[in-house]
Amino acid sequence: MNYFNFAINFLTILALSWYLILNLQWYNYKLKRVILNHHKRSWHILYFVLPLVLWINLEEKYFSIALIVYIIALFLWNKKLDKTLVYTKRVNRFFIILTFLLIFTYFTDSKFYALASLFITLIASNLTEKLLFLKYKKDARRKLDNIKNLKIVAITASFGKTSIKNFLYHILKNSFNTYKTPRSVNTIAGLVLDVNKDLPKNIDIYIAEAGARVKGDIKTIANFLDPQYVIIGSIGEQHIEYFKSLENIKNTKKELLLSKRVKKAFVHQSTDLKDTNGIEVFPKDLKILKSDLDGLSFSFLINDKEEEFFAPILGSFNAINLSAVILLALELGLTLEEIRKSLKTLPQVEHRLQKIEAGGKLIIDDSFNGNFEGMMEAFNMCKNYNGRRVIITPGLVESNDESNIKIAKKIDEVFDFVIITGELNLEILEKNISKDKVFVLKDKSKMQDILASSTKSGDLILFANDAPNFI
């Protein structure tokens, strides 16, 4: 093989691999999900299949022009992404293995071996990561075992688990040395990394989330964390495309109860479980006393007595999340007076019905809320605002058409101006929202310019579910 042919083949496989590893990173390195559950499969044709077919069928000297076009197209496409490749140690190891294998293709004079290098790298990389992960997981479990008298709280739900975690942390932090997982870390890989890297050794309580895409994900987390305390929040049809049925989702969430050390579990009514020894269903007789842009007042039964609470956060659905937090705080020894005092200073959860005032505009940042009930709650809250109402949304992601139709009709009822981001639900939203209200934002990098030109002082602006543009 001459240097020119080798360079062309090397760069082609490198470019194809870059596209592939980016997509794998988006979908938690699950090749099956990249192939079967990708939200924009046309990208696979444009940036992987088409250049691959051209490379296989054309001589290097003819394909070289197509390769230049392909690399430029990848560069321009990447510039428009809001979630680009993060060069983690895993990604760097992938490219090191690939480069090493590609160097040897110089002696083979074969495109087949160059392409085989990519697939061998996928297998070798996956095997390497599994072996490293087993070691990291063992180290993390040893670290947990070495923290004396550590109490572990594990939280799962179809939606609201990050809010529950943050609420619980705020209430417990003044009474216990408490640590919570950062951001929305909720996979076994994320938890293992968090324990090894950031978990302090002098804590009393570790609060962790447990998320899932397939059956067994939460069981794996339960076996690893082995929590003494469990909260299973509201269960709905979030991620229904992966689980296929609501019953599968319920069974997966209930895997958190498989921990051998569970002392007390608080489970939402949607689990279909009953009160038993060690399991308490919540909330009992929940009443929303007031829910508006100033905060939330609610009551529910605790030991057969009605207790009232107030928190300066938005969304009546948060009463469900807070009731679980209150019950667990009581279980850990706090008094109702201590809990009520902490609730009054409860900070808003970022990007979850977070109220922001800027430039005379009222902004409700609900961009991390992607469930049907939560979005409808936000719409109802905005409905009572005396002023022009604007929404920026892609609709529901990982849901069904029926739910998106209901979402669209509610948007049409409540909002005066609708900015639709992404193409995922564009057809449904446009069909069910008045055309004179709709603006389609194809390039999210221009959102700030659109808002500056299309909104004014006195407007309410709701960011509802900000999905990355690969979705």
Automatic annotation (TrEMBL):
InterPro entries: Mur-like_cat_sf (IPR036565), Mur_ligase_C_dom_sf (IPR036615), Mur_ligase_cen (IPR013221), MurCDEF_CellWall_CoF430Synth (IPR051046). It comes from Arcobacter porcinus. Coiled coil: none annotated. One of its GO terms (molecular function) is UDP-N-acetylmuramoyl-tripeptide-D-alanyl-D-alanine ligase activity. The keyword Ligase applies. SUPFAM superfamilies: MurD-like peptide ligases, catalytic domain, MurD-like peptide ligases, peptide-binding domain. It comes from the Bacteria. Pfam families: Mur_ligase_M (PF08245). This is UDP-N-acetylmuramoyl-tripeptide--D-alanyl-D-alanine ligase. The keyword Ribosomal protein does not apply. Its EC number is 6.3.2.10. Keywords: ATP-binding, Ligase, Membrane, Nucleotide-binding, Transmembrane, Transmembrane helix. PANTHER family: UDP-N-ACETYLMURAMOYL-TRIPEPTIDE--D-ALANYL-D-ALANINE LIGASE. Residues 155-329 form the Mur ligase central domain. The chain crosses the membrane at residues 6-29, 41-56, 62-78, 90-107, 113-133.
